[in-house]
């Protein structure tokens, strides 16, 4: 018995270890297999020395495939290594000046030990601009708009040292875009950046350059997901809705004002009320409570082709999604033949070996602006794909996407066992016994026991 007890105890210990292993928080939350090298790189180039410091150009490059920084834009912060101050800025501004009382005349632009910097707005006077500035902090993805995938400003720093031996790099960089989600590493001094003249015949270089890399984690950005996926097909009347409470289980009983019915007389007051300034979404009351729902409908099946309809619906009464994008993963995306009303670009996160990921976004001035919740709060398109005779099937949910992202955030998918099945391929678990059949089965088994 002791041996048996010891064996059982060992077994329980192994099971407990397995449970702890799989329930432990992941250590690679910032890694995304569809965008393994995605990051925002901050490049700090000192371009000239001043009597007590330097002038630098700071540029943020968005190297993420499908995640942009939307309105109200980025804010960048750091901690000075010494007692530096910001004398002036072009193309951006510090949100607070801080205590500059020790400066008797011409106080600096900012004296805070940990300044917070934001972009200037469009329409800023020309003499306060530099290239790639003044876009209200919005940075597009390189795939959608490469000309607007960077943001820059110029900063004049004082009390900082006047050589690359005495200058100390700032510490503790933070990037909000506009909320949390990005984690920035330490500044690393690297090879000075080279600048080329417009004719390409002359090159100059920065006096000193350091880089900071910031990576995104959806886990850090918000406590609950921001989108979900629903499914339907022409061969089954079942509509698979988003899982219940996909984006949280708040309701008006436990969290007053967390959602609003679209026919509620209090809708306008809820939208325009004091809660608007919090930045929190105000969503239409639904079973999933998500600001965004993506619906995938298998529409038609031809001899050599098949067609899918994709609809994006905005349930957020406080948010217009400008320059949105949608990323989906499906094995037949290597044979996209035609797309209607969306732009499209294949993504090859595995070095070009597999082409199963597609990025979609709206057409400029047509449907790139997704209105807040209401009659116009949706965008839709159809995708025509050529069949691969060796892989194509409508069986076992093959026709539905493996993963879906909206604006870079992973959407909640329904459980695979709930997908619409072909009528002649439905599993037995999809057909539970009705009460009359169950009673008949029990009576029959009782009678047979006496035969």
UniProtKB/TrEMBL annotation:
Any GO BP annotation: plant-type cell wall cellulose biosynthetic process
Domain named COBRA C-terminal: residues: 226-420
Keyword Isomerase in annotation: no
Keywords: Glycoprotein, Signal
One cellular component (GO) term of this entry: plasma membrane
Signal peptide (residue range): 1-30
One Pfam short name: COB_C
InterPro entries to which the protein is assigned, alphabetical: COB_C (IPR056900), COBRA_pln (IPR006918)
PANTHER family xrefs: COBRA-LIKE PROTEIN, PROTEIN COBRA
UniProt similarity note: Belongs to the COBRA family.
Name under which the protein is recorded: COBRA-like protein
Organism per entry: Lolium multiflorum (Italian ryegrass)
């Amino acid at each position: 018995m002791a041996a048996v007890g010891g064996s059982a105890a060992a077994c329980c210990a192994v099971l407990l270890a397995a449970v702890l292993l799989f329930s432990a928080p992941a250590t690679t939350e910032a890694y995304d297999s569809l965008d393994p090298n995605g990051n925002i790189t901050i490049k700090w180039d000192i371009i000239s020395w001043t009597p007590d410091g330097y002038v630098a150009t700071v540029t943020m490059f968005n190297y993420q495939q499908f995640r942009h920084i939307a309105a109200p834009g980025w804010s960048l912060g750091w901690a000075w290594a010494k007692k530096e101050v910001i004398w002036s800025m072009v193309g951006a501004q510090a949100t607070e000046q801080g205590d500059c009382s020790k400066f008797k005349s011409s106080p600096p632009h900012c004296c805070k030990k940990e300044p917070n910097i934001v972009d200037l707005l469009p329409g800023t006077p020309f003499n306060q601009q530099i290239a790639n500035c003044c876009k209200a902090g919005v940075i597009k993805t390189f795939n959608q708009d490469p000309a607007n995938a960077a943001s820059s400003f110029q900063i004049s720093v004082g009390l900082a040292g006047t050589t690359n031996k005495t200058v100390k790099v700032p510490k503790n960089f933070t990037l909000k875009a506009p909320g949390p989600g990005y984690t920035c590493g330490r500044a690393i001094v690297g090879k000075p950046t080279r600048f080329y003249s417009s004719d390409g015949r002359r090159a100059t270089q920065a006096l000193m350059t350091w880089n900071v890399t910031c990576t995104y984690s959806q886990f850090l950005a918000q406590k609950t997901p921001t989108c979900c996926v629903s499914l339907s097909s022409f061969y089954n009347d079942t509509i698979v809705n988003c899982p219940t409470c996909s984006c949280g289980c708040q309701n008006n009983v436990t969290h007053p004002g967390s959602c609003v019915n679209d026919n509620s007389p209090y809708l306008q007051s809820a939208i325009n009320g004091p809660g608007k300034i919090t930045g929190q979404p105000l969503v239409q009351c639904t079973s999933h409570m998500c600001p965004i729902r993506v619906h995938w409908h298998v529409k038609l099946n031809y001899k050599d082709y098949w067609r899918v309809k994709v609809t994006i619906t905005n349930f957020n009464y406080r948010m217009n999604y400008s320059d949105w994008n949608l990323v989906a993963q499906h094995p037949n995306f290597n044979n996209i033949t035609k797309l209607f009303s969306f732009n499209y670009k294949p993504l090859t996160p595995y070095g070009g070996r597999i082409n199963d990921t597609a990025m979609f976004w709206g057409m400029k001035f047509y449907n790139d602006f997704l209105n807040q919740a209401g009659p116009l709060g949706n965008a839709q398109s159809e995708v025509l794909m050529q069949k691969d005779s060796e892989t194509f099937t409508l069986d076992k949910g093959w026709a539905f996407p493996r993963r879906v992202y909206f604006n870079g955030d992973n959407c909640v998918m329904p459980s695979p066992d709930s997908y619409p099945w072909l009528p002649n391929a439905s599993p037995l678990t999809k057909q539970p016994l009705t009460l009359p059949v169950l009673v008949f089965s029990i009576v029959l088994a009782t009678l047979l026991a006496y035969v």
